[in-house]
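I have been asked to look over a protein record a colleague put together. This is what I was given:
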Amino acid sequence: QVQLVESGGGLVEAGGSLRLSCAASGRTFSSYTMGWFRQAPGKEREFVAAINWSASRTNYADSVKGRFIISRDNAKNTEYLQMNSLKPEDTAVYYCAAGSAPVGYYGVSQYDYWGQGTQVTVSS
């Protein structure tokens, strides 16, 4: 079992930055692919980024590529999402997830564990 807790969300002006963190419990954190997803009101949950267990591979949605950076620290059981050049369309609840999904997988079904989400609001 892995429990995930996100933090770092908030309100920021367009062009600003935020850093999300996801703290995981459980000794097997380092064996999982970690991902970030987001869900805006009235929309489906969508893939944002993923990182493999060793942090040697990452993958990003086209909408965030070049602006967001995913990372992880297995010694701290923590995953991060550095979000730069934020846009109003980035406004959503952001979720971290852990699972056996390949890094290149964009869906939700191969992620077994989810956090409760943290709200990110970008004002124009």
